[in-house]
Structure formats: structure tokens, C-alpha cells
Fold:
Amino acid sequence: MRVKDVMSAQIVTVSPNDTAQSAARLMLETEVGALPVEVPGVGAIVGILTDRDIVVSVLARGLSTSTTIAEFMTVSPEVCNENDDTAAVAARMREFAVRRLVVVNDDRHVVGIVSLVDIHNEKAAAEGLR
Structure:
């Protein structure tokens, strides 16, 4: 099975200069828990931001919700290609102790996010366990 078969197709990204509050609002509006951080106009992925990052790095530390994403995002996140095998990607996620990876195409443009849950659910469905 390929990543493109199980990923959440997501093209919503944030800029490193956006604020924690604007990212949280975008997560609420789009019903996602993670957003790739992209350099505007360049398309380069420089980080990833999760809802947990906002809670732990901003709210729990008493920082302002106007804190920019660049101050607390995960820099240089691991990515995978949409054509990668899901078993190999799951192994990489376990190796790096992450639950999500940004998915890129052959041109290195973001095409989605894949999570361990996505891979597990699709595997369970394929095995008739869902």
C-alpha cells in the first residue's frame, strides 16, 4: 500500500510568521491537528506545527497567543513521498518517535499528511478488521 492511498490530503499550511492563535483558529476551521509550516512564495517546508505544540510550548509556558510559529514549531520535519510504502513509513515514524509525517510529491510540494492512525486503520480495513 502507498502513502497516497491512506494520507489525509491537506494543502492548508501556515507561515513561520503566523501566530499561535491564527494557527489554532485554522486548525479549528479545518479540523486538523497538524499543519505544515511553509515559507510563503517559496513552497519550502521548514517545519510542522501540532495542536500539542501550541498547548505545551505556548499556553503551558504562559506565552502570548501572538507568539510566532517560528518560535516553537518543529524545525526540519521528516517528510515522506506520496509513493512510499506505508509499512516503511510506519517504521520511520517509530524510529523518529513521531505520529505524523508531511507528505510531498516528486516535486517536493506538500500534498498531505499521513499519521500512524491512517496507516493502522487502512491496514485493519484491508485485513477485514475494521
Q: What stands out?
A: The two ends are 17 Å apart (CA to CA). Residues 20-30 form the longest helix (11 residues). The beta strands are 34-38, 45-50, 74-75, 79-81, 100-104, 110-115. The chain has a mean pLDDT of 90.
